[in-house]
Amino acid sequence: MRTFFKNTLPALALLGLVLGGCQPELDAPKADGGSADFSKYLAVGNSLTAGYGDNGLYLEGQQNSYPAILAQQFQKVGGGEFKQPLFAASESNGSGYLKITGFSNGSPSIGLETANTAMTRGVGLDGKTMPLTLYTGTDNQNLGVPGIRVADITTNGYGLNNPLGFNPYFERLLPAGDLRSYVQYVQERVGTVKPTFFTNWLGNNDVLGFASSGGTAAPLTPVEDFTTKYNQMVDVLTANNAKGLVATIPNVTTVPLFTTVPTAAVIAQVNATPIPAALVPTVVAALGLPAGSALPTGTRFGLYIRTSSATAPVREATANDLLLLPARSVINTASATSPFPNGIGLVIPGASAPVAAALAGFANPLPNNLVLDSGETTAVATRTAELNTVIKAAAERKGLAVFDANAFFNTVARTGIVINGVNNTTSFVTGNLFSLDGVHPTPRGYAIVANEMIKAINSKYGSSIPQVDPNAYRGVKLP
Amino acid sequence: MKLKSLLLVGGALLSGTAASAGGFQVSLAGIKNNGMGGVGTGLALDQASMFYNPGALAMVRERGVQIGANATFARQAFRAENGTEDRTLRNSVVTPFSLFAGFGPAEGKWKAGIAVYTPFGSKLQYAEGWEGRFSLTDIDLKSIFVQPTISYAITENLSVGVGVAVLAYGAVNLQRDVPTTNGQGQNGHVELDGKAENKVGFNAGIYFKPSEKLSVGVSYRSKIDATVKGGDVTFSNLPEAAKPSFQATEFDVTIPLPATASIGIGIMPTEKLTLAIDVNHVQWSKYRALNFKFNNNVGGAGITSSTSKRYYQDALTFRLGGQYALTEAFTVRAGGSYDMSPVKDGYVSPETPDANRIGGTLGVSYKAGEHFSVDVSTQFISIMKRSQTQAELQDNGTTDRVAGTYKTSIVIPGIGFNYTF
């Protein structure tokens, strides 16, 4: 028996060694640049490219921008270093941003982060814009400028601190007192960086500025103007035969800013609210009916909005009008100008026009800037489609990859997107994809965008750039 | 023989194992059988027949006690679809035990015995940060069956047997990350931990040995539902704001431990050589879905249950093995098995990253004198490479798991001690 153990113990020890070697391996997927060269990458665009989110540009957002994620993945197929105009650690909160401070009755309370910002220079020469600490690096490769429209790219002084107003994010990237337009700045960067690959995601603000103001601010960029300037930018970027990717403009109706307050449900709720008995005599008197009369059949509350239409500035809302996210803190709050709460009025069948108008929500409709009415919504959708046609034509002309953000976000808005067991939707806060401003993605959203871009690049250039695990990037940060 | 104390030892050692037969079934009962590809239904080798074919127990010549132990070393590689990192398991070793004791008159027609074994189990600990962490980070399934058995030889050639299979101990521990992020940047985490209720099933078999050179057997082990009621739910690392959505403290779940029907043939061309084949049919098709019920919210107001599709299919295992008596004292064994996965394409989940399995086994016995012998076995099992894509998951409605490629191999050395009297 002893000898048996003496003989088998070495065998068992040997077995232990064999076990160490039994770890199975899977061949690494091939990572290859295909017909594109990713050694020098330049990113052009607006807030989305800069890494903007939560209504602000700050260090964490910059570090998780889609160009930063792309560059990191490009490095696996021969990509080089990628420099971003990062905020200093001591000013990491950049422009400041929105954050959730708590919850009341299930709704998030949203506050502003104001500490450690880069707004160190006081008010600008226009008396309102807060310029940011200048970026002094000369090696910038992420040229994303929040707020910029294609319509703005040839405007001289767009980034100059001047009394007529300026873009502080562009001003920050330029040397002090620089008058150059954005396209000139890009031209200089192209000359210096000599990019072999670029991404260009411009165009969103050419519809979004209009849409997010309920149609009150910046007009929709005319197609002709957009076409000229967009092609000019693409020509600058492809001057050295660089390959690249362009992205289309998503529908505004796929982002939470326009979808979180459900118009149809709000209307239904308002319509179903019974008229308080105490109010009946007042209304009866206003209608000139004998005291004690009942209200005309069909009298009910309605939701009223102010539209941009000159002929009928106030009307009852329909399900085709989009209520913007901030409207939810206005609807049904006390009005300064009407006995009824904001947005609420009475609909009285058969009443004479002046009386109906007096009792309807004409004194307290939802203001124009909180409503993208049906006419404006249609105009935005039409213009978005027209501008996307221009973008795709430019890509076709230069043989570029296209990330059809419009089609992608339409799908996501309809079905959500599940990745590695986690469901992401376009819902506000809980959907993981959109930050607290309801328009810009979260780091998770940007990672998913980067993956979609990688798919488009791989398919166009025969490359095999690996994707990232979006779940490693956060959604909305909860306290 | 101090049977009582041996039993206590067997019962006190928690058993569990990385799965080593299709799904989370484990066929590691007898160390001799382990060395022969897991055959045993058509043989009357030793007391472990109580597991493979209770009908054969009456034909086992010696009375005796056998205690066996295995150590399972599971190693796995995983790559997420489109992912770059090769994920490996945090290595763990589990050591399933078995114990078989048979008694009865040496020349009588009946034998009785008691068996303790672990027919189902699984333990996997995935790598930190692996892509499937929102499906699963850790699983530990354990079961211990105690089976009092009686077997009767109707004629010299034919015997029958039946055992009452008692699920004496069952435990489930499942952990995964919750897709929330707290102020420290951590994902939430949930742990489900519960004990199964005791349940009773049966294991029955018929053994027929028409000649010195041939034996056949059939056996059937019934299905038992392992039911956990009021298991503990523990959430951690949740952000304050998400806590109202995750209020559950208790869960109920039922996991079917499916019925297994086996047929086996033994051929003894010479006195020294034994060859055997087995076919097992496991009714995995009973495993339709993994349904959890909770006593409060799990992921939102009013969400108090979860369901995850399984739709397993019945699966066959083919086993082939043999032993050869080199000398009076030494017997060597070899065998192989092919195990069809019950998991359909697009349904592979991290709890059982299953695929068809190929196994090769070796074994040796040493008989030290009249009463005592030692068995040693080693099994090498390769769970073949298997991939599933996100598109397949979407088509099947199984997006609660992760798309990618798994490849697993398991090495299971085992040792058994026999005392016959």
Describe this structure in words.
The complex is a heterodimer of chains A (479) and B (421). With 479 residues, chain A is an alpha/beta fold. Chain A contains 15 helices and 14 strands. In chain A, helix 7 (205-212) packs antiparallel against helix 13 and helix 8 runs parallel beside helix 13. The relative contact order of chain A is 0.14. The model of chain A has no long low-confidence stretch (mean pLDDT 89). With 421 residues, chain B is mainly beta. Chain B has one domain (3-420): Porin (Beta Barrel), CATH 2.40.160.60. Chain B is 6% helix and 54% strand. Chain B starts with a helix and ends with a strand. Residues 1-21 of chain B have low confidence and may be disordered. The chains are: A alpha/beta (479), B mainly beta (421). The interface between A and B is large, with 39 and 53 residues. Chain A: Pfam families: Lipase_GDSL. Chain A: This is G-D-S-L family lipolytic protein. Chain A: It comes from Hymenobacter guriensis. Chain B: It is found in: Cell outer membrane. Chain B: This is Outer membrane protein transport protein.
Distinctive features:
heterodimer, A: 479 residues, alpha/beta, Rossmann fold, 2 domains, five-stranded parallel beta sheet, three-stranded antiparallel beta sheet, 15 helices, 13% strand, elongated, B: 421 residues, mainly beta, Porin, 14-stranded antiparallel beta barrel, 4 helices, 23 strands
Q: Layout of SSEs?
A:
The complex is a heterodimer of chains A (about 475) and B (about 425).
Chain A: H1 2-20, E1 41-45, H2 47-50, H3 59-63, H4 66-74, E2 97-104, E3 107-113, E4 142-144, H5 168-173, H6 182-193, E5 197-201, H7 205-212, H8 223-237, E6 243-247, H9 256-259, H10 263-272, H11 280-286, E7 300-306, E8 314-316, E9 322-323, E10 344-347, H12 353-359, E11 371-372, H13 374-398, E12 401-403, H14 405-415, E13 417-419, E14 422-424, H15 443-461
Parallel strand pairs in A: 1-4, 1-5, 5-6, 6-12
Antiparallel strand pairs in A: 2-3, 7-8, 7-10, 9-11, 13-14
Helix pairs in contact in A: 4-15, 6-8, 7-13, 8-13
Chain B: H1 3-12, H2 31-34, H3 49-52, E1 64-70, E2 72-80, E3 87-88, E4 93-94, E5 97-103, E6 110-117, E7 122-125, E8 138-153, E9 158-181, E10 187-195, E11 199-211, E12 214-221, E13 224-236, E14 250-257, E15 260-267, E16 273-282, E17 289-294, E18 305-309, E19 315-325, E20 330-339, E21 357-368, E22 372-388, H4 390-396, E23 404-420
Protein name (chain A): G-D-S-L family lipolytic protein
InterPro entries (chain A): Ester_Hydrolysis_Enzymes, GDSL, SGNH_hydro_sf
Main location (chain B): membrane
